Amino acid sequence: MSEAAQTLDGWYVLHDLRSIDWEKWNAASASEQEAATKDLLKLVAEWQAVENDKQGSYAVYSVVGQKADLIFMHLRENLQLLNEIENAFNKSAFGRFTRKEYSYVSVVELSSYLAAPGVDPMQVPEIAARLKPILPKSSHICFYPMNKKRELQDNWYMLSMDDRKAMMRSHGMIGRSYAGKVKQIISGSVGLDDWEWGVTLFSDDALQFKKLVYEMRFDEVSARFGEFGSFYVGNLLTNDAITELLK
Ligand code: VOV
Fold first, then answer.
1. Of 45, 69, 110, 185, which is most buried with the most CB atoms under 10 A?
2. What is the pLDDT of residue 163?
3. Using an 8 Å Cβ cutoff, are 60 and 237 in contact?
4. Which residues carry out catalysis?
């Protein structure tokens, strides 16, 4: 049996994708619409307060294209807290105007492939901070789930640790060349959801998502082993943008 990579695991993650039922919304009275908008902004304020206390983080984006209208990303210490967030949303005046399109449950993960030997990673402040990240409020988000192949010829899980380390080093080098342009949050979901990882990218320039993902397609770990689910790309929804959207 090949040696399993050790993982460091941080906050749990919920990606919650919704569509707005515009027919219902347009049929609602102005006061109902106003109450629903207020309720959504109240939820956002609660999420922001939790983030200010460093007990979790959140992101709200509108989705471009027809897969959904909104993507909410929440990070919390445990699954119960994530469940509370989705229940509160469902019960809210705004939640009643939405349809559930997709969700993804995972946990922020760092793998040990590139860890410095003899160092306790939890004692390195930057590593601890990466496990409980405050999500950047960048202009754009890109989210997709992925697997690593388990086929006869190309089975990631049967490669030696050294081979996997070498490939992850090359992967990390490409990623690092996007420093300052793209921030990545990798969350593990083996045993939690239908794919093995959630990949969430943030950038102020959406074109950088295409450039980064394209470049990685030529790198062995993605070229040989990567399998990808649907991509969701979106624009930041500030409070003003939420009010404008629902006007
Ligand atoms: C901004 C870009 C960026 C950077 C800097 C970066 C760096 C790194 C490092 C250094 C490491 C290894 C240690 C760790 O930190 O875990 C990883 C790990 C990982 N990555 Fe990555 N990645 C990026 C970006 C990045 C992208 C765009 C993708 C999607 C791949 C694609 O083809 O679409 C990805 C995937 C992953 C995954 C699934 C893992 C876990 C693999 C496992 O088997 O455990 N990643 N990644």
1. 185
2. 97
3. yes
4. 144
Q: Is 159 in the pocket of ligand 1 (CB under 6 A)?
A: no
Evaluate whether 14 touches 79 at the Cβ level (below 8 Å). no
Beta-carbon contacts of 161 under 8 Å, excluding residues fewer than 6 positions away, are 2, 3, 5
Sign for the CA dihedral angle at 104, 131, 46, 42 comes to negative
pLDDT of residue 123: 87
- Predicted pLDDT at 144: 99
Contact 107, 10 (CB under 8 A): yes
Smallest CA-to-CA distance from 113 within 240, 33, 4 is with 4
| Centroid of ligand 1 to alpha carbon of 131 (angstroms) | 14
Measured from the Cβ of residue 170, the count of other Cβ atoms closer than 10 Å reads 15
Phi-psi region of 56 (alpha: psi -120 to 50; beta: other; left: phi over 0): left
The CA distance from 5 to 31, in Å, is 55
All residue ranges of the chain with pLDDT < 70 are none
- Maximum separation of any 2 CA atoms in the chain, in Å: 64
User: Which residues define the annotated binding site for Fe-coproporphyrin III?
Assistant: 130, 144-148, 171, 184, 222
Strand 197-203 versus strand 226-228 pairing type? unpaired
Q: Which pTM was predicted?
A: 0.97
